[in-house]
Amino acid sequence: MKWLNVKNAVDKAELYIYGDIVGSEWDKWTDTDTAPEDVLTLLSEIGENKPLDIYINSGGGSVFAGLAIYNILKRHPGYKIAYIDGLAASISSVIPFAANKIIIPSNSFMMIHKPWNWMAGNANDYRKMADDLDRIEQGILNVYQENLVDGVDIETIRGMVNAETWINGNEVANYFRVEVVGANNIAASITDRVKAYTNVPQELLNQSHVSKRQDEEQIELMKMQLELL
């Protein structure tokens, strides 16, 4: 279970959110996807007072699953540190705020935007969904508001949400209470979900192409090594 790493009975535990955030085990496409039940299982195994490190590199996913993970982690009384290793986008940008402390490298990214939904129905259904999405957005904004640095107004964040805003670690610190550290070498998680967003920074897309090329080169090298055996 890649999302779970309990080191030992006296050390801290680790939670990795390195894929999509999904509603249940049945919704997982890869073993890196994370559902609320994964987090519940982890917390039940480590005990309520154990410190927890949360590592995030995710393009988002289910809003309600993400909010459930946030609330589950928020209730955990052990000291929590969240690390944004590469990307905290969409609903995964909410999860770090469940921690007592957030650490983000200067070259990592956070993306905030209005919640999405796909649906079919009549005009009444669409009007209701628009109202529901507005209420969901306000719930997300409430989390952001609790973690603003002094002098930042929630209306500023609301405008950033409306525009789909991508900010690096240094910029995140202008708005939210985080600790910025030096750049790391962990690539942001650029999945098909992330590529569907509107304003993905070109440097992240370039990083995705480089990562894909490196993977292809590694595969070719492994093939050559096998041929030599």
From TrEMBL:
InterPro entries listed in its UniProt record = ClpP, ClpP/crotonase-like_dom_sf, ClpP/TepA
UniProt-listed GO biological process terms:
proteolysis
Which UniProt keywords are present, listed alphabetically? Cytoplasm, Hydrolase, Protease, Serine protease
Which Pfam families does the record associate with it?
Answer: CLP_protease (PF00574)
GO terms assigned for molecular function:
peptidase activity
Q: Per its UniProt record, what NCBIfam families does this chain match?
A: Clp_rel_HeadMat
What family, per the record?
Answer: Belongs to the peptidase S14 family.
Q: Which PANTHER family match?
A: ATP-DEPENDENT CLP PROTEASE PROTEOLYTIC SUBUNIT (PTHR10381)
Q: What is this protein called?
A: ATP-dependent Clp protease proteolytic subunit
Which organism encodes this protein?
Paenibacillus spongiae
Q: What is the lineage of its organism?
A: Bacteria, Bacillati, Bacillota, Bacilli, Bacillales
